[in-house]
Amino acid sequence: MKILLIWAVITGATYLVSAIASEVKQWATRRALRHVSPKEIAQLIKDNEGKITAQELHQRTAIPYWVAQLVLTELTEQKLLEEKYEKNRFGRRVKQFELSVFPTEQNLRFQLQGIASTTPLKAKEELLDADVIRHAVDAHGSITATRLCLKTNVTIEEAAKKLDQLHTKGVFDIQTSDEGGLFYALNDKSLLS
């Protein structure tokens, strides 16, 4: 009886985790497709000799790598793309995605929209020193990596890295708040007047 009860609990927990993971995957995919449309992905594939990897999609758009994987997998499940495996120059198998050859109405519309698209892809913007300093001035001389992340639409890691670089150059001084958090204070106080 105990074994049956344990099995039921494990099965229920597994189902719950699976359902949550599925919801997170769908949410992330929908969110990513707001930043880069299937039409833009089709155009990018066309411009990239008919194929693309998740890494290439990540590098050429503003979406994170793991979300690029989800988007390409979702488009594959919708039969809009096909998975292919090719070896790279190091002999490793790399998953690439190509436009599907299935002649479904949805697929043809996807491909034609992509080919006719003149919408430029959203390039991943480089975070400039001047922008970081401007955001710090707007925040009365101090800024955190989290605030910079929100203001510039970069990852927390990229924001922290940029702030650390500017600290090394002497633009910012690292200080600790009363709550124990780190923030970066501008050294040049003349910018605040």
Which short descriptors sum up this protein?
8 helices, Arc Repressor Mutant, subunit A, alpha+beta, 6 strands, 193 residues, three-stranded antiparallel sheet
Quick rundown:
By secondary structure, this protein is an alpha+beta fold. It is 55% helix and 15% strand.
Gap between N and C termini: 75 Å
The total count of strands amounts to 6
Radius of gyration: 23 Å
What number is the mean pLDDT? 75
Strand order of the largest sheet: 1-3-2
**Percentage of β-strand residues:** 5-15%
Q: CATH homologous superfamily of the largest domain - what is it? A: Winged helix-like DNA-binding domain superfamily/Winged helix DNA-binding domain
Helices, by number, come to 8
Helix content: 55-70%
Low-confidence runs (pLDDT<50, min 5 residues)? 114-123
CATH topology of the largest domain: Arc Repressor Mutant, subunit A
Q: Based on CA inertia axes, which overall geometry fits?
A: extended
What pattern of helices and strands is seen along the backbone?
Answer: HHEHHEEHHEHHEE
Give the class-level CATH name of the largest domain: Mainly Alpha
Please identify, by name, the CATH architecture of the largest domain.
Orthogonal Bundle
Work out the count of structural domains.
2
